[in-house]
Design brief:
mainly alpha
């Protein structure tokens, strides 16, 4: 159906024509969704305040997941941004979308996007609290939900979870190995005070998006074949 080399090569081809816009989108998404807060906080331990002004540090504190404000920010802003990031990268597969596509999660059925993303995160957290391995498995099972919301913000909760489960059945280990294949790049990036890791993220997200598009088409074909047999 798909292999790691295939999707990574396709991601490289896309980056050749549009890398810097992809970088900006991934950077904005990482900051606004809180993903990069811990990275930059780690950098603060090594870099003087002259380099990272106190005002910037205050913004990071505001976004910190340790605070109530940061948690609310992550839910009502970060979730929509994560969906918008996926929307941008899906569009980027076909052409050269505008940077403001990252805000697509706020358009359409915004509350539905937030609700489903929140349910997804709570389910993953509860599974992880029970047992780590089942939690990781469930995280991969739900991994297609942000992409599904990006393309259809009106999708119901049951449909989103059901479709993501269908798309990732038999694919979880391959998705895990795909993530592992970027580990070396991220480790190399973290050697440069974590900043280098920011440049790897577009490659990572682009490759994952390619997998999503392949699995989506595969599910459509399976549904068509099922309909044909029923007729």
């Amino acid at each position: 159906m798909w292999n790691r080399q295939q999707v990574k090569e396709q991601a490289k081809q896309i980056m050749k024509r549009n890398y810097w816009k992809m970088f900006v989108v991934a950077l904005i998404a990482g900051i606004l969704s809180g993903d990069y807060v811990t990275v930059i906080q780690a950098v603060q331990d090594f870099v003087p305040d002259v380099v990272l002004p106190s005002m910037f540090s205050s913004i990071l504190s505001f976004l910190s997941m340790e605070s109530i404000v940061g948690l609310l920010f992550s839910i009502f802003i970060g979730f929509a941004i994560r969906v918008g990031e996926q929307y941008y990268f899906i569009k980027n597969h076909y052409g050269n979308p505008a940077l403001n596509e990252i805000f697509q999660g706020f358009k359409g059925n915004y509350l539905n996007v937030v609700k489903i993303m929140l349910i997804m995160e709570l389910k993953i957290m509860l599974w992880l609290l029970l047992l780590v391995v089942p939690g990781i498995i469930k995280a991969y099972e739900y991994s297609m939900i942000p992409c599904l919301l990006a393309e259809n913000p009106n999708i119901t909760t049951d449909e989103a979870f059901s479709l993501s489960k269908q798309m990732t059945t038999g694919q979880k280990m391959d998705l895990f190995v795909l993530d592992l294949s970027f580990l070396g790049w991220y480790c190399l990036g973290f050697l440069c005070f974590g900043i280098g890791a920011l440049f790897v993220k577009p490659y990572d997200v682009a490759a994952f998006t390619e997998v999503y598009l392949i699995l989506k088409e595969s599910v459509k074909k399976d549904e068509c074949a099922t309909d044909s047999q029923s007729d």
